[in-house]
Design brief:
- The complex is a heterodimer of chains A (303) and B (86).
- With 303 residues, chain A is of the alpha+beta class.
- Chain A folds into two domains: 3-111, no CATH class; 116-301, no CATH class.
- Chain A is built from ten helices and 17 strands.
- In chain A, a hairpin with a 2-residue loop joins strand 13 (198-201) and strand 14 (204-209).
- In chain A, helix 5 packs parallel to helix 6, helix 5 packs across helix 10 and helix 8 (246-255) packs antiparallel against helix 9 (260-276).
- The longest helix of chain A is centred in the C-terminal third of the chain and has 17 residues, at 260-276.
- By secondary structure, chain B is of the alpha+beta class.
- Chain B has one domain (5-77).
- Helix content of chain B is 41%, strand content 16%.
- Chain B contains three helices and three strands; from the N terminus they run βββααα.
- The longest helix of chain B is centred in the last third of the chain and has 13 residues, at 65-77.
- Chain B is globular, with a radius of gyration of 12 Å.
- The chains are: A alpha+beta (303), B alpha+beta (86).
- The A-B interface holds A 245-248, 250-251, 254, 260-261, 264-265, 268-269, 272, 275-276 and B 5, 7, 9-10, 12-14, 16, 18, 21, 23, 25.
Chain lengths: 303, 86
């Protein structure tokens, strides 16, 4: 059963009641909410995700609901609950779905220590995965959205999860687009399903793009890392790929890791092995079409 | 002190300090000096290192004693080597 199988009010009822156990790759999240924005967001962006039975194990139990304080009457707000705890400050009510997404990212990066987690987008083509580690604002998610529009499989636009054998673990969820990149992707891919734009968030204007159904369907298929590319959007830049030393690439992965310090010696070896088996580059771009052509050539060349 | 974890990637040395968990990318000379110290059976002075570098591990540029002193201080600052009493 998938989320789209819940007809009419069934989805909203499930969210208000026992919660919905949504599988995102190897992680199952039990989501509860009384908010129609959450029901609408899940219906649009998680339509193809598998639903687990109500008694199935869930890695995380989260809820997105108005806070219980009187403040909710003054200015409607929304709160993210994690196992009954409140890890974040509340946000304006219209940011309910982004808050769910940000909260889920936090759940995984702060708790899934069976994986080495990096702040990186991951896409895959022909069995070879491309890691795009980068700080916020580098154009990582835009490039990721552009590549999946050109047929690459989405593993994640935000979290590279590396298992003990060095394979990349998929967690295909909505791609978070910000500010100008929202219209860039609308123009680039007319078929892209992009949800409502939420303005004035901590990250500016935010909208989410539904992950491709095929990526969700293949969410249990891990991928072997083959390419590490440090992307950077720069206005006016021609799409340029420059080889990067493996030691520099290694240090970039360390800088972009969430839980490298927890993995200790094995994390060091895991990242060094990963870098050894990849070709590494820096990449600068402005035009997404040009960028996609470069990566398609790169994927072909690494075959 | 514990011997740092190390890997050579494309000829460059990355090391992880087992005590602090900090990870560093070392220059070629710094990496060579650190490996010399790790593999040495006893402590070494800057002059000993300069001698070994000149004989067995030639670098692109001759390394002066003052440069070796500077590197040793830097390696000590980041916790990868420790000074022993003379």
């Amino acid at each position: 059963m998938i989320v789209a199988d819940l007809a009419g009010d069934a989805l909203h009822d499930a969210l208000k009641g026992p919660g919905m156990r949504v599988r995102t790759g190897s992680v199952v999240v039990c989501v509860r909410s009384s908010l129609p924005q959450i029901a609408a967001g899940l219906a649009l962006h998680y339509a193809n995700h598998a639903l687990e039975p109500d008694d199935a194990f869930a890695d995380f139990h989260v809820a997105v609901d108005p806070p219980t304080s009187m403040r909710r009457w003054l200015r409607p707000q929304v709160q993210f609950y994690f196992d009954g705890q409140v890890p974040f400050r509340p946000l304006p009510l219209d940011q309910a779905f982004p808050m769910l997404e940000w909260g889920l990212n936090w759940c995984v990066s702060a708790h899934c220590h069976q994986y080495l987690a990096l702040h990186a987008a991951v896409v895959e083509r022909d069995g070879r995965a491309l890691l795009l580690p980068a700080p916020p604002g580098s154009g990582k998610s835009t490039l990721c959205a552009g590549l999946i529009a050109r047929g690459w499989r989405l593993l994640s636009d935000e979290l590279a999860l590396i298992d003990a054998s060095g394979m990349l673990v998929p967690m295909p969820r909505p791609v978070s687009l910000k500010n100008a990149s929202i219209d860039v992707i609308r123009r680039f891919d007319e078929r892209a399903m992009i949800g409502p734009v939420i303005h004035d968030t901590i990250k500016g204007s935010v909208a989410h793009m539904t992950p491709p159904a095929e990526s969700v369907r293949r969410a249990m298929m891990r991928a072997a890392p083959a390419l590490i590319v440090l992307p950077r959007y720069r206005a006016g830049a021609a799409a340029t790929l420059v080889p990067l030393g493996k030691a520099q690439a290694f240090m970039e992965l360390v800088r972009n890791a969430f839980n490298y310090h927890i993995h200790g010696e094995s994390g060091f070896e895991l990242l060094a092995d990963l870098v050894q088996r990849c070709r590494c580059y820096e990449f600068e771009y402005q035009d997404l079409d040009e960028a996609a052509q470069v990566f398609n050539r790169l994927a072909g060349a690494s075959a | 002190m514990p011997v740092p974890q190390r890997r050579v990637l494309d000829g460059e040395l990355v090391v992880r300090d087992r005590s602090s968990g900090a990870t560093h990318l070392l220059s070629q000379v710094s990496g060579t000096i650190l490996v010399l110290l790790i593999e040495s059976e006893s402590s070494m002075r800057a002059a000993d290192i300069a001698h070994v570098l000149g004989v067995t591990a030639p670098t692109d540029e001759p390394v002066t004693l003052s440069e070796i002193d500077r590197i040793l201080l830097e390696l000590e600052r980041i916790g990868l080597v420790a000074r022993v009493p003379a």
